[in-house]
Amino acid sequence: MKINSIRKGLVGEITVPGDKSISHRSIIISSLSTGNSIIENLLESEDVERTIEAFKNMGVNIIKKNNKYYVEGVGLKGLEKPKKPIDCGNSGTTARLLSGVLVGQKFDSIIVGDESLSMRPMDRIILPLSKMGAKIKGRMNKHLPICISPSQDKLKSINYELPVASAQVKSAILLATLYATGKTSIIENKVTRDHTERMLEYFGCNVYRTNNVIYVDSNSVPVGKKIYVPGDISSASYFIVAATIIEGSNLTIRNVGINPTRSGIITVLRKMGADIKIVNKRELNNEPVGDIVVKHAPLKGIVVDEQIIGTLIDEIPILAVAASLSEGTTVIKDAEELKYKESNRLETIYSELKKMGANIKMMGNDLIIEGVKELNAGKFDSYNDHRMAMALSIAALKGNGQSEILGYKSVNISFPSFYKTLYSLC
Ligand code: S3P
């Protein structure tokens, strides 16, 4: 993809596609419900397609009519043995959340993925699910393919302190608990997205939280509902940063999920000096939603503390772009989890932004970025990582000429209309 630098602000109104995390969960939880669900504004992307295919292959009737998805829930015990291994492609959320469901089934299953997903850590779910009595094995006990066989007895609930801040691990345990006896408690020392808790609760399950402990009762049975998936704040973040760094911008992004466990990017950008307003706040199926109004503003470097990292984990590539164009130094602390994403983002952010002329250093798991006025144009590699492709494309708008982004088709993982939306504004 070739991208020219831009001198004119981004002005207008856009929407972004449905939230990826909420889309996955809406397919999973409505499939396991008794009764039917209707899902509107579901994200149509390669990752979510993997989750839809997985449940269709286990006998769930999911059809699209008039832009809505109709899911005929089969109940917790109604899934059928899939005829072939479940291919999760590039989707970590599909692989990890599905593992939590499959350990409770009365049939064997195999989960596979593409080259990148097959390198990502799965021991983080194998360990707690095994503690619950699941029969789950991975290659070298930590990678896909994963083989799951039915456990003789019912699964047991656990009390588990998350060793890594991961919503996917938390969600796998919550879903497995629906097939267990007793009550599970999960201690979360760093905040991560709480969409599974919110959606289970919305579907009538007994989930609650006190301070940093989440409880779920195994007697919970989800019941079909109507869902409207809010716009994805991660997808919105590329345009929030673009409007902030490009002079003359005044952009409204309608209908975006502003769940506080996801909106760390807004908190941090505001601290850096961004002009971001949230209007028309409302709630849709237990998720807060609003319209985001962004105007250009000069940014200043800040320290991004490790406690907030979980609430903006997917936005660090675009935050690093914003930091590269800020006055002063930004420190992004303890971003180790970035190593385990669709690419090793700690390295890919460092190498590609350095090529762009950013003053960036990596110290252990910290990124230290000193802002510059303008970035270099050139050829940059996304390493087939969707979030890198989008972040680099926005950075290229501030380059000193035409840039080329390699592996740009990866945007299909989460935001297939990204370039169309960008083009409509430029
Ligand atoms: C996700 C959780 C995060 C995030 C991913 C989606 C989810 O991963 O990076 O894009 O939907 O639960 P981790 O749980 O591995 O941090």
Secondary-structure topology with pairs:
Layout: E1 2-3, E2 11-15, H1 20-31, E3 36-40, H2 46-56, E4 61-65, E5 68-72, E6 86-87, H3 92-102, E7 109-112, H4 115-119, H5 123-131, E8 135-139, E9 143-149, E10 155-156, E11 159-161, H6 167-177, E12 180-181, E13 183-187, H7 195-202, E14 207-210, E15 213-217, E16 226-228, H8 233-245, E17 250-257, H9 264-271, E18 275-284, E19 287-295, E20 303-304, H10 316-324, E21 329-332, H11 345-355, E22 359-363, E23 366-370, E24 379-381, H12 386-396, E25 403-406, H13 418-425
Parallel strand pairs: 2-17, 3-16, 6-7, 10-12, 11-13, 20-21, 24-25
Antiparallel strand pairs: 1-25, 3-5, 4-5, 7-9, 8-9, 13-15, 14-15, 17-19, 18-19, 21-23, 22-23
Task: Give a verbal description of the structure.
- With 426 residues, this protein is of the alpha/beta class.
- The chain is built from 13 helices and 25 strands.
- The strands form seven sheets. Strands 2-17-19-18 form a four-stranded mixed beta sheet.
List keywords for this structure.
UDP-n-acetylglucosamine1-carboxyvinyl-transferase, Chain; binds shikimate-3-phosphate; 426 residues
